[in-house]
Amino acid sequence: MKHFLSVDDVDDPMMLVKEAINLKSHPLVYDDLGIRKVLGLIFLNPSLRTRMSTTRAAYNLGMNVMSLNMSNDSWTLETEDGVVMDGNSIEHVKDAAAVMGQYCEVIGIRSFPSLKDREDDYGEHLIKYFAQYSGVPVINLESSTVHPLQSLADLVTIEEMKKRAKPKVVMTWAPHVRALPQSVPNSFAEWMNRTDYEFVITHPEGMGLHPKFVGDATVTHDQEKALENADFVYVKNWSGFEHYGELKNDPSWMIDLNKLKNTNNAKLMHCLPVRRNVVIADDALDSDHSVILKQAGNRVCAAQAVLKSILM
Amino acid sequence: MKHFLSVDDVDDPMMLVKEAINLKSHPLVYDDLGIRKVLGLIFLNPSLRTRMSTTRAAYNLGMNVMSLNMSNDSWTLETEDGVVMDGNSIEHVKDAAAVMGQYCEVIGIRSFPSLKDREDDYGEHLIKYFAQYSGVPVINLESSTVHPLQSLADLVTIEEMKKRAKPKVVMTWAPHVRALPQSVPNSFAEWMNRTDYEFVITHPEGMGLHPKFVGDATVTHDQEKALENADFVYVKNWSGFEHYGELKNDPSWMIDLNKLKNTNNAKLMHCLPVRRNVVIADDALDSDHSVILKQAGNRVCAAQAVLKSILM
Amino acid sequence: MKHFLSVDDVDDPMMLVKEAINLKSHPLVYDDLGIRKVLGLIFLNPSLRTRMSTTRAAYNLGMNVMSLNMSNDSWTLETEDGVVMDGNSIEHVKDAAAVMGQYCEVIGIRSFPSLKDREDDYGEHLIKYFAQYSGVPVINLESSTVHPLQSLADLVTIEEMKKRAKPKVVMTWAPHVRALPQSVPNSFAEWMNRTDYEFVITHPEGMGLHPKFVGDATVTHDQEKALENADFVYVKNWSGFEHYGELKNDPSWMIDLNKLKNTNNAKLMHCLPVRRNVVIADDALDSDHSVILKQAGNRVCAAQAVLKSILM
Q1: Per-residue pLDDT tens over the stretch C124-174
Q2: DSSP-derived 3-state class of residue C202
Q3: What is the pTM of this model?
Q4: Could you tell me which chains touch chain C, where touching means 3 or more CB pairs under 8 A?
Q5: B17, B84 in Cβ contact below 8 A?
Q6: Which residues of A touch B98 (CB under 8 A)?
Q7: Which residue is closest to C30 within chain A, CA to CA?
Q8: I want to staple C268 with a disulfide (CB 3.0 to 4.6 A). Which of A95, A181, C9, C289 is the partner?
Q9: What percent of chain B lies above the pLDDT cut of 90?
């Protein structure tokens, strides 16, 4: 694997899932693959799970890790070409990327969308520049529009837990009190479209995702109907794509235990952090339906499979 | 040892002190005990000595370390059950703890008190949740009410320096310009009460500590009398427990060289950082009485003894 | 080498350059020299290249690294003796240095100048205190007045690229939109004065550097004349030394491709980050003249040569 920017960089997603499941059982089998190699993690936005799980994955492979926390305020990167940089930007991304690539064997980078300029966000300029100019493999630690390490961990979780070959997987929009990016649902949809599962997306009217991520998924505004006979219910809030970045908070879409009754004893998924009793009710989160902790734990083997593919 | 939240988790404090002293002489004897194991350090408040000494201790045992800096502002954890999380809290501590425990073999966590709500601070909810839900051993890097890694290092220092079997140890309140937590004096008292030393606490009226930490200590408001014949003088400011969080700044309680004259050539201790000529005068700090640097150095072997006990 | 505070700590700069070039070819030859040893990096100001390259250098030598980010706001160090510390400073630098030295085998420290109090900045109190009190070797990660790790990397770059034994090296002031320290040009001049190159400094009137750094360099206000037949053109903005900290932004001093025409096909150098089309024009930066990326890459072998000299 050259880069890991999205599922498009993965020849066979199911093979990568299998690799991750193997590494979960034997995390230290390749513990000298990364000896004396360095993973550089660059955070333009906060990170907890991604930071810790990716670091752990690198340690399991014997790598060294260096993390760099940068905020857009103190270290604004220029992404346009040819401009006179007399404003807030102190360095052009193509220079920064080319420099950092000389200090690491692999770079991971996180950068959230503005949620203000859709065209700019969906252009994914920053991570594309890093892939183009750093000279080393680049891993997406969540960019403006996708979060493939999360999706891979999600897929690992489904493969571990599924009780029939082609489970019904339902991704449902849920309410929230802040406008969140579309990266997790975009990415989950994109990966689901590379499986042979039955995949359904349900959300309120006006809250549809970018068509290129929705792909062949069945889309409905009827949450109740969508959940019928579901094997997996992936709950996630996102802000508007049409009305870009718009916050919607409709409490009737919150998932609780009652809503899971007509499912096929569905496993309940969420990428975390989850606001309890806003996105999902306690009675569902604390029930046997929930696999959210397993899902978070799978972030390690997912990142490790990606790193291993890059190093080998 | 399962957790290290306070002295209550230690069967035999003096055995742990001896272990620390051994490790100080031979820091690398167990340098493969922690190979491929990860210590996760989580800071909800700033840390210098604790961060560096605990990291060093982990390195001496061959562990990997990952540090996470979180401020209460950007990543507020919910500690109440059953609430609708539509406010500032973005994640429930029981979820966060259970996730982080999957990425590390051991977790250390630092979280200061509010100094506003005594009942809440003394409830120690955050660290208790981590111990309950993380699934891995938890080390207290200073919580709302105690700082046991500091106290263990203090005890190591006394054992190294004492000239009689049962030294007289005096902990004296000292002035300061900011309201500080009671964690260091609480913890020191609690550990002293597990020794057979003579232990005296002296402080101005109204500045008493919580009785459960004071225990069997002799308490007096007469600093001069307390210092008589002392072998060790532990100087520390704390804010009010009765008038919770209240700042008191009485310059007459500052320790200087003159005040040490009637001691038994006492060793002068402080946990650092120390404001010179406010808490302790230069003439005392720069005299042969001072063992503050040795004390700070002992933070490494103390943390290493705790980590070793947990790993073995 | 005891400390690496400036070129004055280096017996033979050219030998150190040769060592760095050797390490660049064989970065892992000494990969067990630093096993179980810890480099502590302390940042009172932001750092990207220095942080990453020095960390990488330490990893190449098998060292562990711990980084501490402190801002002057939250952790102000007192640098005066004998004062009553009842203000913003929470710890005296001599105490902090002596503590940290017990946790690491080597300390690196970065601290920018105020650009307000010239005498104070040029006194270099902070790093001198660290060298005096920490008890371990101290590496300058850029102080108020010099940046020797950068200069060493610059010298490595010149030695790698030079086409005649005594190249003409020209350092030219360039415009900027913010007042920047003089540390990079001071340091570059100081190192150039330890070589047998022809060394010319050019800058607008009133923008001269401290005479002790200028040394024997030829100084001219005629940029065009200075550039004639140059083999290397080092471009850098700095704020006023005479009118201390004063910002000057004269666009006519920007370097572009046209200005390089009368050079000896000069290599173009800059320490980065560079504001494109303010300091240097795109047409020069993106031409074959530019060696800025090689220069940034050489930060690793430069830091590694310094660390190796200290460890051996």
Answers
A1: 999 999 999 999 999 999 999 999 999 999 999 999 999 999 999 999 999
A2: strand
A3: 0.97
A4: A, B
A5: no
A6: 293, 296
A7: A36
A8: C289
A9: 95
